Amino acid sequence: MKAVKGKFFSRGVHLQGRKSLSETQAVETLEGVTEVAIALSQHIGKPALPVVEVGQAVKRGQLIAKADGFISANVHASIAGIVKAVEQRPDGKGGKSTYVVIERAETDETDFMPPLENPTAEEIVERVAAAGIVGMGGAGFPTNVKLMPRSKVDTLVLNGAECEPYLTCDHRLMVEQTEKIVRGAKYVATALGIEKIVIGIEVNKPDAIALFEQTDLDVCALKKQYPMGSEKHLIYCATGRKVPLGKLPADAGVIVQNVGTVLAVCEAVEEGKPLIERVVTVSGTGIEQPRNLLCPVGAPLSALAEQCGGVKEDAVKYVAGGPMTGNALVGLTSYVSKTSSGYLFLSAKETNTYEPTPCINCGKCADVCPMSLMPMQTEFYTNAGDYQKADVYGGVLSCIECGACTYICPARRPLAQAIKTAKAELRKSK
Ligand code: SF4
Ligand code: SF4
């Protein structure tokens, strides 16, 4: 391996990691799941189309919904059982999604694809598509599409930054599945026709850095800075290349993949296993025993909470994802998806319970914005319903939704939420 000296980006924020709650907890398998609800839309793009009927028996790994078009992804059964329903259910965020509900059977029959030996680039891309692999760092972009970039790339950057507080699932994967991650990265590199692979890991994971230093990947020890895991900032810090505004990483010759995603690629190639399970961090001082759990996709949050000893009485907020970019949940109604990195159970001392006060024009939100935007302008014009001006003066469409502005604001203004609203309205109008 070669040690790569990481660069720094200006701005951003320095957060308390709060990772000690779960970072030493080895991954455990979630037990006792009797029913899963698997969403047809767990990815960016069109929802998958169901190919099973109510009452049908399915095996673990069997295709249950087919990708609908180029930007979409296959979905597979994560347990063997009987399809109980294909129905709309609350998604935990106040909306509804369509789910295939499977009731576990006595048997645990699997239906994986045949393993590939010395696969070609085309075979890897086909396998990744067939396995329904999507970006597991949170974006959910279909990975096979990313493996066919329009621009010439020469470098694969593995994202092992895991810069959000509390989350430790990628850390555990890097420590426990180092070799599989290396092999998965090499399959991705083969698919792209490149050789250079750099893994970026924040310095607060010294055990993971030490393990990858023993492999033949280049290792970049990244400064602990939020949002280091953002693609553009990671690329700059690990390679020194800048991705221009409005452009993609491939335009800078780079493809970024999360460490969990390349692990899924390894299992799809070598074991024929579709993306049907993932490691999820369950943490916060509002849960009895924070843990990292290997969960079937579609597992109900209640099962995760139960295996972690239950939710404490003083838990006042449930969050899907990290505290900076995650979504507040309405109760325990949520199901693990391909992009679920964590669930947090936060007590009052870990949450912002202050009411927003008027903006005092301190400029701190702009000072920390890693994209050099003007979040206070966005919020002002969004609240006035003028989304065009919100974009012109605030730069809505360049926002990476990192939440650093909301975090730093002394007036506790919900800036990132306003930006998300403006983005959604602008996209609708287009
Ligand atoms: S405006 Fe967007 S990119 Fe800038 S700090 Fe706020 S959420 Fe992050
Ligand atoms: S940080 Fe908050 S108070 Fe300061 S300018 Fe931005 S929105 Fe206003």
Task: Provide the fold topology.
Elements (H helix, E strand, L loop, with lengths): L2 E2 L23 E2 L5 E5 L9 E2 L6 E2 L4 E4 L8 E2 L4 E10 L5 E9 L16 H10 L12 H4 L8 E6 L8 H8 L1 H15 L3 E7 L3 H8 L4 E5 L8 H9 L14 E5 H13 L5 E7 L7 E6 L4 H7 L7 E6 L6 E2 L13 E6 L16 H5 L6 H9 L3 H8 L9 H5 L6 H15 L1
Parallel strand pairs: 1-12, 2-15, 10-11, 10-13, 11-12, 14-18
Antiparallel strand pairs: 3-9, 4-6, 5-8, 6-7, 8-9, 14-15, 16-17, 16-18
The protein binds iron/sulfur cluster (SF4) (2 copies).
One iron/sulfur cluster binds next to helix 9.
Q: Compute the number of strand runs.
A: 18
CATH superfamily of the domain at 3-23 and 114-271: NADH-ubiquinone oxidoreductase 51kDa subunit
The low-confidence runs, each spanning 5 or more residues with pLDDT under 50, are none
The spatial strand order of the largest sheet comes to: 2-15-14-18-16-17
Bound molecules: iron/sulfur cluster
Q: Count of helices?
A: 13
- What is the distance, rounded to the nearest whole angstrom, between the alpha carbons of the first and last residues? 47 Å
The secondary-structure class comes to alpha/beta
Overall geometry comes to globular
Helix content: 25-40%
Q: What is the CATH T-level topology of the domain at 3-23 and 114-271?
A: Rossmann fold
